[in-house]
Amino acid sequence: MNVKILAALGAIALLSACSNDDQNAAATGAGGSGGLAGAGGMGNVRPGSQEDLVANVGDRVFFDTDSSQVRADGRDVLQRQAAWLARYPQVTVYMEGHADERGTREYNLALGQRRANNARDLLVAAGVSGQRIQTVSYGKDRPAALGSDEASWAQNRRAVTTVR
Amino acid sequence: MMTTDRRGLILGGAALLTVPATARAQGTTQGAVIDITKARTDPIPIAVPALAGGGRGADIARVIQANLRNSGLFRPVDNAAFIQSAEAAAGTPRFQDWRVIGANALVTGRVEDQGGRLRVEFRLWDVLPEQQIQGTAFTAPAAQWRRIAHLISDVIYERLLGEKGYFDTRIVYVAESGPRDRRTRRLAIMDQDGENNRFLTDGSFQVLSPRFHPNAQQIVFMSYFQNQPRVYLFDLNSGSSRVLGSFPGMTLSPRFSPDGRTVVLSYATGGDANIYAVDAGSGAQRQLTSGSGLDVSPCYSPDGSQIVFNSDRGGDQQIYVMSAGGGGARRISFGRGRYATPVWSPRGDLIAFTRISGGQFGIGVMRPDGSGERILSEGWGMEGPTFAPNGRVLAFYRESRASGSRGQGYSARLAQIDIAGFNERQMVTPTDATDPSWSPLLA
């Protein structure tokens, strides 16, 4: 049992480590839904789980500096998230908004909230019930990448969908 | 614990040691009394020998020396230079002995242990005219000897500088530990000199933005308890906390009104954030700003008539002032860069802020009309200024840049700086520390 869990976590770690490529691949990919057949290949990933979302759909979208507009590549990710959520109607999620460290804490909390809200609105526009999505902002206080450089900041300006 | 702190102390200001002609040495240019309105002045040389009577006498003198030295406005004379013994000076100071070692002011005193309580009398002397400036006695439980030292420090500061001190105060802040992507954040409180540090929450939920009530017995802060970011009130005496107001979404950046009856905060919903005033007792809420934009970090003027806040309504983060009832908002920051985290000085004369400009963060002050902007400190990361109760010193937090991709090298520490822009010092905390809030004077 433990071994299985570890294997699943290992797969996530690998995927998120190259999530930039993930995003690019997703943006050019064919909606992703067909590819989910590959989920069987993941072995330990439970359908409808966070691991499933991360591995097969993409759990996050990114923002430009000081912007809370979801970019075109992010819109594609959210479309696929909406399709995934349609397949697992029992799943409810948090939409987490985040900011990079180059702003002040309180403003970044509000900015993260606005990012989460915009991402949520796109899921709703794609047919997901707003009741299933709760937004929460962590501002700059939960970075995904820990460096103090442009590459890290780009990773941290994000909205992340997490299964509750 | 806090209850004892506050109530257990008997201030002896009335009963005292009055010596004829409690001279203030007004008008003398040679005396120790100086004009603090000068932006920067040579620190006053002051001798603080151990108080007589043994026991805590030396400890109290050491705390007084540290307070005065850290203010940047005093220069305690090295104990090794003393000629007259502390015991003898507590009887009758031999002024020439203190004059020749360069002291302009002298503190003498005596500690008496009255069975678990300390009675501490002290005298402040102007060495050149050989006059007593002040004589006071304090009585307190022996465990609170530090508070006596802080109270004496405040008396010295006030008598020699002509304005109230800030030593008998505390700072509440966020104690941070662990890697930044899984940070533990606890509410912590300590004396202004870093002693008596205590953690008020256990780290099982995140906390941010603690601020003191004007009576220093309550704190308002933001917490992620049950993953719902909301503003809470925390009672220091009972240790209990409760949600403030009934907002369906995130509330943040709270701050008490000067009378403590209202909390002004930001409520984020629907992609916007607006400022609300919430009655601290009933929870009744009133919306003060509206429209698109993120309005955060509100702070009342000390007379309660206005609110300064941060907004991106004009495109980027700037500082605005409006009436306390909402309305009439006007932008006051017009320098280069983005402006944030405004706080009004208790003296009313300045607003301190964080500026982000050219990739650097800075702490600065400007007048409430936006004029006279001065940047006091600048660096890779710093924010969150808070005024000492006399408006003379700011605390804030300073961050160092991570040097590696795993966040190595990052740190966050509290710092203090004089509003004239000198004497920046790092404060000592057991862990990384952010979001300081300075209490009012406790006594």
What does this structure look like?
- With 164 residues, chain A is of the alpha+beta class.
- Chain A has a single domain (2-163), classed as OmpA-like domain (60s Ribosomal Protein L30, Chain: A).
- In chain A, 49% of the residues lie in helices and 13% in strands.
- Chain A is built from 7 helices and 4 strands; from the N terminus they run H-H-H-H-E-H-E-H-E-H-E.
- Chain A has helices at residues 2-17, 19-28, 39-42, 50-56, 72-87, 105-125, 150-156; strands at 60-62, 93-98, 133-139, 158-163.
- In chain A, strand 2, helix 6 and strand 3 (133-139) form a beta-alpha-beta unit.
- In chain A, helix 2 (19-28) crosses helix 5 and helix 5 packs across helix 6.
- Mean pLDDT of chain A is 81; it is low at 1-41.
- Chain B has 443 residues and is mainly beta.
- Chain B folds into 2 domains: 2-161, TolB, N-terminal domain (Rossmann fold); 170-438, TolB, C-terminal domain (Neuraminidase, 6 Propeller).
- Chain B is built from 5 helices and 30 strands.
- Chain B has helices at residues 2-7, 57-71, 86-91, 95-99, 145-161; strands at 10-12, 44-47, 74-76, 105-113, 117-126, 131-141, 170-177, 184-191, 198-199, 207-212, 218-223, 230-235, 241-243, 250-256, 262-269, 272-279, 285-287, 295-300, 306-311, 318-323, 330-331, 338-344, 351-357, 360-366, 374-379, 381-387, 393-400, 411-418, 425-426, 432-438.
- In chain B, the strands form 7 sheets. In chain B, strands 1-6-5-4-2-3 form a 6-stranded mixed beta sheet. Chain B has a 4-stranded antiparallel beta sheet with strand order 9-8-7-30, with no helix packed on it.
- In chain B, strand 8 (184-191) and strand 9 form a beta hairpin.
- The longest helix of chain B is centred in the middle third of the chain and has 17 residues, at 145-161.
- Chain B starts with a helix and ends in a 5-residue tail after the last strand.
- The interface between A and B is large, with 31 and 48 residues.
- Chain A: Keywords: Cell cycle, Cell division, Cell outer membrane, Lipoprotein, Membrane, Palmitate, Signal.
- Chain A: It is a lipid-anchor.
- Chain A: Belongs to the Pal lipoprotein family.
- Chain A: Residues 1-19 form the signal peptide.
- Chain A: Its main location: membrane.
